[in-house]
Structure formats: structure tokens, C-alpha cells
Write a structure and sequence with these properties.
The radius of gyration is 19 Å and the shape is globular. The chain has helices at residues 3-6, 23-38, 46-58, 67-76, 84-96, 102-112, 115-132, 143-151, 164-173, 191-200, 215-223, 236-253, 258-278; strands at residues 9-13, 154-159, 182-184, 208-212, 227-230. The model is unreliable at 274-279 (pLDDT under 50). It has a five-stranded parallel beta sheet with strand order 3-2-1-4-5, with helices on both faces. Helix 9 links the parallel strand 2 (154-159) and strand 3. The chain folds into two domains: 3-22 and 138-278, Rossmann fold (3-Layer(aba) Sandwich), CATH 3.40.50.1000; 23-132, no CATH class. The protein is an alpha/beta fold.
Length: 279
């Protein structure tokens, strides 16, 4: 084990919707609309499917899931759009593949030739095209100050399920790139696997905290026996302010215990429900 890393604190941070204000616009302007470009959805149902996509990916406890998990979920609500047997095989791939990436999906398509996999690849490619045309996303207010504060006492790892090139461009343009020691994206494995890689490299579990905006971030933290701090949807600025002013120091002092984490998690759980009611 690396003695240097063993003695260092590490803060893992999700990117989209957590540090960078890119999640909502990507879903509203890219992920959802790309569905309508690939699948033959009747015009009168366009708004319905877009609203459901946004609810599933932004405003409920499935917020922040991988794009192919989101696609699997939305198609399950519209069985008329896909072949039933192929849908079962796509769902099986989503649940069992080790890497949820376009490259892994292409490998599966090359083996099976399933139309639904071809459509999923076309959709993913179209999403990336539409994201490229979006205005550059910026960090939430308070993120840069938090990063500087964190960097004085800990290493920083971006742990995201998004596209690597998009993540790196956003962090470079935001002036945050050089504050980060590690970047992990969808091609590097699940968030849980990426955190495990960091632990295996020498960081101690009790000196790592995951900062995220979705239940998937929490599960990745729990799977690796590390702490979790939630960034609340629609309350990102105040969440970061609280981390900078209070909870980061508690983490360093060893006072960020399970009771504190459970209280914060309960607030996150309630907040997702509240946002859904307001949407």
C-alpha cells in the first residue's frame, strides 16, 4: 500500500448535476429529443415521453442513472416501440454487463445483431451530437471555492458515468481541471468499481468521501464502505456551501459519522420527492 496515499484524504465528486450545471439541459435538450429522432413515437405522445424521461432521470430516486439504464427504463413504458424478445435481451445486457458504455454495447451488437442494440447505439451517438451543440456548462455557484478548499487538505477524484471527453472539456473550460488528481468516466467502469480502484491504489476507506447528487452515488459509496455527502437537486449552491463551511471539516476531524450521513440522506430522499411534486 502506498504510504503517501494511505495518509491522504480523498474527496470523490460526481460531475453532471453535482459539480457542473449540465445535467438538466443535457436531458431536456439531448437525451430526450434523441429518443424521438431514433424511435417512431407518434407526435401526440412526444411531450409525454419527454416528460417521463426527465422525471426518471432528474426528479426521482433514479436520478443520475447511466444513459443505457435510463433507456431501458423508458422503453419498458412503451413496449410498442420495440420487439419484446429483443427488449428482454437488451435489459439483460444492461443488468449484467460489466461496463455500461457505447463501446461495450457495440461489442454486444456485433455478437447478436439485434435491432434494438443498433437503435440504442444510434440514440447514444445522437445524444453526443446534440450535447456537442449545447452551450458550455459551468460549475454551480460555490463549486470552485469548495474545490480550492478541498484541495488544501485532500486529493480530488472526479467519478462520473458520463462521457470522458465531455467531462474533461467542461472541467478544463471551468478552470477546475488542474485541481483534480483523477478522472473516471463511463469507460472506466461503474462508480463503485472506480472508487474501488482508488482504494486499491492505497487510499483508506475511512479517509474517503463521495460527493454526489443521486442515489447511485450513495450506493457506490456504501459498496466501498466510505462516507457520502449529498448535493440536493435544485439546491446545489446551498449544498456546496454547507459542505465547504461545515461538513468537509467534520469529515477531516472524523466527526462525519453514520448518524450525520443518515440525516443528510433522508434530506436527499425527501428532496427528490419534493422536486417531483413541483415539476
Amino acid at each position: 500500500m502506498s504510504t503517501l496515499k494511505e495518509n491522504r484524504y480523498l474527496v470523490c465528486i460526481d460531475s453532471d448535476g453535482c459539480a457542473i450545471d449540465s445535467m438538466t439541459v443535457k436531458h431536456e435538450k439531448a437525451f430526450g429529443p434523441a429518443l424521438l429522432d431514433v424511435w417512431d413515437v407518434p407526435t401526440e405522445r412526444h411531450q409525454e415521453i419527454l416528460t417521463l424521461w426527465n422525471d426518471l432521470n432528474l426528479y426521482t430516486k433514479t436520478r443520475g442513472i447511466n444513459r443505457f439504464q435510463g433507456l431501458s427504463a423508458i422503453l419498458s413504458y412503451y413496449p410498442e416501440l420495440v420487439d419484446g424478445d429483443e427488449m428482454k435481451q437488451f435489459n439483460a445486457w444492461v443488468h449484467h454487463t460489466k461496463v455500461l458504455s457505447p463501446e461495450a454495447l457495440k461489442t454486444e451488437y456485433d455478437k447478436t445483431g439485434l435491432e434494438i442494440l443498433s437503435q440504442a447505439l444510434a440514440w447514444s451517438h445522437r445524444v453526443n451530437e446534440l450535447i456537442t451543440d449545447l452551450p458550455l456548462a459551468l460549475p454551480f455557484e460555490g463549486v470552485k471555492e469548495a474545490m480550492v478548499r478541498i484541495g488544501e487538505k485532500a486529493d480530488i477524484a472526479v467519478v462520473s458515468s458520463a462521457n470522458r471527453s465531455a467531462i474533461e472539456e467542461e472541467w478544463k473550460t471551468s478552470g477546475l481541471f488542474n485541481l483534480v488528481q483523477f478522472f473516471f468516466a463511463q469507460n472506466d467502469g461503474t462508480k463503485s468499481e472506480c472508487i474501488k480502484k482508488l482504494i486499491d491504489s492505497g487510499y483508506r476507506n475511512d479517509k474517503i468521501i463521495m460527493v454526489g447528487d443521486a442515489m447511485g452515488d450513495y450506493k457506490a459509496a456504501i459498496n466501498n464502505s466510505i462516507r457520502f455527502y449529498p448535493i440536493l437537486a435544485a439546491k446545489e449552491t446551498s449544498s456546496w456551501q454547507a459542505f465547504t463551511d461545515k461538513y468537509f471539516q467534520m469529515f477531516l476531524n472524523g466527526d462525519f459519522d453514520e448518524k450525520i450521513q443518515d440525516e443528510l440522506l433522508r434530506t436527499m430522499d425527501e428532496n427528490l420527492s419534493d422536486v417531483l411534486k413541483e415539476s
